[in-house]
Amino acid sequence: PNTPPLTCGAVGFHDDFEDDPTTAWTLSNSGVFPEYTPRDWEWTSEVPEGGTGRAFFAIDSRVIGNCIEGDDDQSGMMGLESPSIVLGGEASLAFDHWVATEPRFGDEVLRVRDPSGLVLELIANDDDPRAPWVVESIDAARAVRGLYAVTLSVRDPGPSVRFLTDLLGWDVVADERGRTRLSVETDQPGQRLEILHAPDGPAGVNGLGTVHHVAMAVDDDDAQARVREGLARLGVDVTPVRDRQYFRSIYFREPGGVLYEVATVPPGFTVDEELDSLGRELKLPPWEEPVRGSIERGLPVVRL
Prior knowledge:
mainly beta; about 10% helix; globular
């Protein structure tokens, strides 16, 4: 068939291992919202420029379900899984292609999971003033510009939102389908938090595939001290200032259980190496140097 529209759709490529991929591959759907309707899948030999093999498209055959904001939104998860492809002997390959689409606050959101199970999102936004992180294979128009926002999943969003607005100076800037967006100073990427209402969400447990804490930056020690004093005065259990070599930190939990950090910007990561060489050597604070050998033995090898 002709290439279907990519509105609210996903494209997954595979090499032409099977004569009829629609029977050889397992196709699945799962909804993000209750009103989600499974998509139809189509395959075509009209592969978009730069692709190889056949292309799969996930579309909705009906009029609704085209990522329209509001009650008609039918965003969901679309999965494409291949059987193992025998290479000879005991060697085989298996392919999984997962793409989630979800419109949010007027932006296009692509959701994936990393190998640990952590959910990551790539967000298309035209208002990010930060310089792109350009590499040889990714041009400026497609390059990542930084952390867009952090999503906190809590069972009761009200206390979490009030904690941010009343105690930490954040402002509510948008509200959409169980998700509240807040910003600090200016409503721009990199200065946003989003509170997701997850009434049936499991309690957080530290470990693989989780985020340990969410950090906020302040200009200096005096600003951090004011934050700490204000929290302690209201009965929040906040830690003493911790020296982290490159910054100083305090930690406390918000009503939903999320661990927050407020860290100073100075002295910064250039206290023990030049900017151009950041990340090329393992740097440790002085109090960890006596055990450098045991720390290094537990780390994977990184080759640049």
